[in-house]
Amino acid sequence: MHTPSDSIACLAAVHHSYGKVRALAGVDFELRRGEVLALLGPNGAGKTTMVSLLLGLLRPDTGQVTVFGRDPRELAVRRRIGAMLQISGIAPNLTVAEQIDLFRSYYPNPATVGQLVAAADLADLMHRRAKALSGGQLQRLHFALSLAGNPELLFLDEPTAGLDVESRRRLWARVRELSESGRTVLLTTHHLEEADALADRIVVIDRGRVIAEGTPAELEAEVSGRRIRCVTRLQPDAIRALDSVRLVERRGASTEIFAIEVENVLRHLLTQDPELHGLEVGGVGLEQAFLTLTGRDDNTATPN
Amino acid sequence: MITATLSELADSDRPNRKIDAFKTEVAYELVASWRQLDFALPTVLFPAVFYLFFGVFFGKGSGLATYLVATYGAFGVIGTGLLGFGIGIAVARESGELRLKRVTPAPPSALIGARLVTALWFSAVVLLELFVIAAALGDVRFERGQWLGLAGVLLAGTLPFGALGLAIGTHVSGKGAPAIVNLVYLPSAFLSGLWIPITMLPDFLQNLALFMPPFHLAQLALGVIGMDAGYPWQLHVGVLAGITVIASLIAMRGIRR
User: Fold this and answer.
1) Where is B28: in which H helix or E strand?
2) Tag placement on chain A: N or C end, fewer CB within 10 Å?
């Protein structure tokens, strides 16, 4: 479906540590032209490290990082990208209009002021100094600045952190527009909803490794299975021993079971416990898929 | 051939655009610094106020008013260099401002260059104030060449202290920077004879002054008006050049981190 020439940025066998803390443990990753890709993972999974490597802010301990087939630190690369960083600041004493003017001056073919103002809803804030902006307004300014150079490739590191629901939806709409205009977008998030709403492809990372990747639908299918709920006298351990059962958990009087081949599991359950009742079978949402993949639902379920 | 030349031109980044971008950077650096009142006011007012007090009220018409215009001039330009770079860079690093700029095509040399132009501009304002006060209120009389020489030496003195500030600013936190920079600035200014003439200090302090960077700039400035302590000027220039080189190397290591 895609050829190597589709690749716009990649990490190959990248390891990176901060002192003794290992942030990335052998990551292979590819960003394809024109896609919106979400790097999804819990806090501390290594998302920001990956973005920092792709932006040339960090060098990998081992492995290769390329953007547009080049070293990301090259000027030619920086002219074609834009970034909204999680840890970033701007001159507190310059107004929104001045910041936009300044950042536009860095690029050979900048976006127009009008485009930037419209993209980030900044019309009413142009003469306000950065230090007088609220967190959400500042976030919008950073979004505008990331677009100042009319980038082909846009990095958004936790772009909606700290935004209220409405601003978040509005930013999502802008990202979709950018994608429709042919730009490639890499965004990081720990909100599944965000990845699901925006991304053509999701790469799930956890503890410095890529643990799954695919379209939202594919990811869902990967752990697809289904959920069975019933009241049974069978012990969880006995159920766990069955083929294709992933999770078993007691919820009050009933037992919840996540399994891939539901029909087989049901057949066994019904034979072994004729008194089984209160039976429900349902699908598993992407949320459950994500939790299962990252194994972060230890509080509520017993991993198999 | 023609097409090659044209594409080279396009690739060479249109020199004008580069200059325009640098002008924009300088203009906004200046505007932002002026609006940072807790930087701008002390930098621009303290040397003049101190000079007015010690030079004019206590020394009007005497050698003191003449001597101190050179040393408070040194005090002023050292301040713009040390504070502008030392605190400015540390704060910009800590806030993530520099990180964001590193992702843009703006070359780090342009960012540092813009700060240097800003520091020189503040230095010029400080010197102009001092010179006007000295001539109008302190009855200080120099030849035109001496005024210009004093201004030239002191403006150039912004550079080594800007480099020193940069070396500090690239290694300390934004919160710690003001304290550390002032710990370097104020005691060394006093010990170098910038506030009261070095000859009024005890002998051992006069010898210690040789190890203080501001002493060497002050002596060069005093040399212009014939009031220096008599060391060869090459010594002072050598020390200041050495500081500039070493501090720049330390700063570059800090920037790479």
Assistant:
1) helix B15-35
2) N
**Residue A46, SS3?**
coil
The chain A residues in contact with chain B (CB within 8 A) are 55-57, 75, 78-79, 81, 83, 85, 87-94, 98, 101-103, 105-108, 129, 142, 145, 148-149
Mean pLDDT along residues A222-232: 78
DSSP string, B79-148: HHHHHHHHHHHHHHHHHTHHHHHHHSS--HHHHHHHHHHHHHHHHHHHHHHHHHHHHHTS-----HHHHH
- Comparing CA positions, the residue from A221, A208, A193 lying closest to residue A287 is A193
* Per-residue model confidence (pLDDT) at position A284: 66
Q: Are A194 and A160 in contact (CB under 8 A)?
A: yes
- Tell me which DSSP letter residue A130 carries: G
Read off the pLDDT of residues B71-127 as tens digits, 9 standing for 90 and up: 999 999 999 999 999 999 999 999 999 999 999 999 888 899 999 999 999 999 999
Three-state DSSP class for A63?
Answer: strand
Of B28, B102, B107, the CB nearest to A98: B28
Q: Pick the residue from chain B with its C-alpha nearest to A149.
A: B104
Is the distance from CB of A145 to CB of A90 less than 8 angstroms? yes
Q: Note whether A69 and A31 are within 8 A (CB).
A: no
Q: Determine the residue among A68, A106, A129, A143 to mutate to test chain B binding: the one whose Cβ has the most chain B Cβ atoms within 10 Å.
A: A106
Predicted local confidence at residue B12, as pLDDT: 46
A94:B31 CB<8 A: yes
**Domain map of chain B by residue range?**
16-256
Which single residue is written with the structure tokens 């325009």? B20
Q: In chain A, whose CA is at the least distance from the CA of B93?
A: A89
CB B64 within 8 A of CB B55: yes
Interface test with B, best of A88, A139, A153 (most B CBs within 10 A): A88
Please give the model's pTM, rounded to 2 decimal places: 0.83
Residue A145 pLDDT > 50, yes or no?
yes
Residue of B nearest to A143 (CA): B100
CB A57 to CB B102 under 8 A? yes
Beta bridge partners of B20: none
Please, what sign has the CA dihedral across residues B77, B79, B84, B89? positive
In three-state secondary structure terms, B25 is helix
Q: How far is CA A281 from CA A123, A171, B10, B104, in A?
A: 51, 37, 65, 53
- pLDDT tens string B89-100: 999 999 999 999
How far is A167 from A165, CA to CA, in rounded Å? 6
Q: For B182-217, what is each residue's pLDDT tens digit?
A: 999 999 999 999 998 998 889 999 999 999 999 999
Which position has the token pair 């024109």? A34
What residues contact residue A35 under an 8 Å CB cut-off, 6+ apart?
A179, A184, A185, A200, A201
